[in-house]
Amino acid sequence: MKSSICSIEDCSEAVHGRGLCELHYRRWQRHGDPLRVPPGPEARFWSHVDTSGGMFACWPWQASRNASGYGHFDHSGAHRFALQLALGRPLGEGMEACHTCDNPPCCNPAHLFEGTHQDNVDDRNVKGRTAQGDHVPPERRARGDRHPARRIAGWGQGERNGRHRLTEDDVRTIRRRLAERVRWIDIAAEFGISKPAVSHIAAGRTWTHVS
Q1: Are strands 112-115 and 96-99 parallel, antiparallel or unpaired?
Q2: What does the DSSP 8-state code read for residue 151?
Q3: Longest Cα pair distance anywhere in the chain, in angstroms?
Q4: What end-to-end distance do the CA atoms of the chain give, in Å?
Q5: For the segment 159-182, what is each residue's pLDDT rounded down to a tens digit?
């Protein structure tokens, strides 16, 4: 007498076909292996990103792109998905994933920041670009505290930032860890920050006032 329970060990679902429950049967149909588990969205995403240039280089999206060069992934912009992964949360309502590198297919979280549409437009103008390709004279470019990326709620230098996670002593310790060649992922775990945050400290892009 044939069993009415899936033949896969520890599976108690009813048989759908070929001695398998519906889940395992569908996996067998699609992959030829009832035990194969499809990769999750994060694994699928990174399989389409070229990170061969290293931590500080642009990471171009290798799959479908729109006419402007921005990547598509699961009904979202690829660069937006990359920033959300780095932040560990969805972007705020009405917020955009803005490039600091001005390279549309780039998905390196270290080259992205969360900002409003106006922040994105202002950032473009700060760098001397407009939609018509006009050049903004250097004396008119916003710098320092006037830069649009620094108008995001809570921004401030170092410990003056209301959302800071590190102290100046933490930053000095992180620099020592980096000099000792401790892995970035281990430093990030120790201090409860992201790997891109560690990369910014390593490259001297943040906490520059700390000696």
Answers
A1: antiparallel
A2: G
A3: 85
A4: 77
A5: 555 445 788 899 999 999 888 888
Q: Identify the DSSP state of 17.
A: B
Q: Who's near 50: CB < 8 A, 6+ residues apart?
A: 59, 60, 62
The three-class DSSP label of residue 107 is coil
Gap between the Cα atoms of 98 and 151, Å rounded: 14
Round to whole Å and give the CA distance between 53 and 59.
7
User: How many angstroms separate the CA atoms of 115 and 121, rounded?
Assistant: 10
Residue 18 corresponds to which tokens in the numbers above?
């070929």
Count Cβ neighbours within 10 Å for each residue of 12-22 and write b for 16 or more, e otherwise.
eeebeeebbbe
pTM of the model: 0.50
Tokens matching residue 145: 């505290």
The amino acid that residue 117 corresponds to is H
Q: How far apart are CA 96 and CA 119, in angstroms?
A: 9
